[in-house]
Amino acid sequence: MKYRHLILGAGNMARALIPGFIQNSQDCEFLVFTPSGDKAKSFADDFGAIWVKDLEELRNTHIDYLWACFKPQQLKQVALEIDFLTHPYLTIVSLLAGSDAKALTEYLTTDQIIRIMPNTPAQVGLGVNALYKTKTVHQDKWGAFWQAFNTSGINTVFENEDDIDTITPFSGSGPAYFFEIARILIEDMKARGIDGALAHQMVAGTIEGAGRMISKNSDAETLRNNVTSKNGVTYEALESFKESGMEEMFNRAIERAYQRTLELKGSK
Ligand SMILES: NC(=O)c1ccc[n+]([C@@H]2O[C@H](COP(=O)([O-])OP(=O)(O)OC[C@H]3O[C@@H](n4cnc5c(N)ncnc54)[C@H](OP(=O)(O)O)[C@@H]3O)[C@@H](O)[C@H]2O)c1
Known about the structure:
Layout: E1 3-8, H1 12-23, E2 28-33, H2 38-47, E3 50-51, E4 65-68, H3 75-81, E5 91-94, H4 101-108, E6 112-117, E7 128-133, H5 139-149, E8 154-157, H6 162-172, H7 174-191, H8 196-215, H9 220-226, H10 233-243, H11 246-266
Parallel strand pairs: 1-2, 1-4, 2-3, 4-5, 5-6, 7-8
Antiparallel strand pairs: 6-7
Helix pairs in contact: 6-11, 7-8
NADP nicotinamide-adenine-dinucleotide phosphate is lined by residues 8-14, 33-36, 39, 69-72, 74, 77-78, 81, 95-97, 117-118, 120, 172.
C-alpha cells in the first residue's frame, strides 16, 4: 500500500469530491470517520473505504493524508481529538471554507497543506475547484494527489492563497445562486399553469445549455445580445433587470459573501 488517507467528515462535499479521487487512486487505503457514524458507514459502503468507528482505533496507524471535510467551526475540536495522529509528514487536504494554511498548520501541527475550495457540481463530474498548496508539500505527495484529483471538472491551483477567498463567493457559493434562479423561474412557470416536472426540465435545460454556450469561450455579453432584439420580449426582461439594479445587487451580494469569508477566517 502506497498511501493511507483518513477522511474526517462525510457530508455533502466529501461525497461530491472524494469518490472520484478514490476511483483514480491506486494502492491507497481510505479510512473514514464521523462522530455519529452513520454518514461514515454509508460513505464506506458506497465508495469502498473503511469505516472507523472510533478514532482511538488509529492510535498506532500511520496516516499520510488527512482530509478535513467537517465545518470550519469544528477545527479546534477536531484538532484536540486527533492530536495523536498528526505528525510533520502528514499532508492535510482541507475543504474548510474559512481556514487558511496558517490556521490549519497551527491546529494540525503540519505545514503540508493542500486547500480546496470545492464546488458542488463535482457530484456530477463538473466541479470548478480552486486549490492552493503550501510550498512545503512534498513533491511526491503532491504529485500523487494531483494525479488522482485532476481527472474531471476544472481545477486551478492558485499561487496566492488570498485568491481562494476572492473566488469563494463565485465558485464555492456560485451553484446556490443558479439554484435560486432556477427555483424562482420554476415557481413562476408553475404559477402560470405549466406542469411542475416540465418547468423543472425546461429551466434545468436552459441553464445547462446557456452554460455550455459560455464554455465554448464565447463572450457572455455577445451571447446575451444575440438573444435580445431591440424592443423584443427578452429586451423587456433585461430592461426590467437593469431598472431593478441587478448588476449592483449581485456586486453587493458577492462583497457581503467575501466579507463573511474574511470574518470566518478571523474568528478562529
Ligand atoms: N457545501 C458546499 O457547497 C461547500 C462549498 C465550499 C466549501 N465547503 C466546505 O466543505 C466542508 C464540508 O461541508 P459540507 O456541506 O459537506 O458539511 P456537512 O454536510 O454538514 O458535513 C459535515 C461532516 O463533518 C462531520 N463532523 C462533524 N464533527 C466532526 C468531527 N469532530 N470529526 C470528524 N468529522 C466531523 C459530520 O459528521 P456527522 O455526520 O456525524 O454529523 C459530517 O459528516 C465545510 O468545511 C465547508 O466550508 C462546502
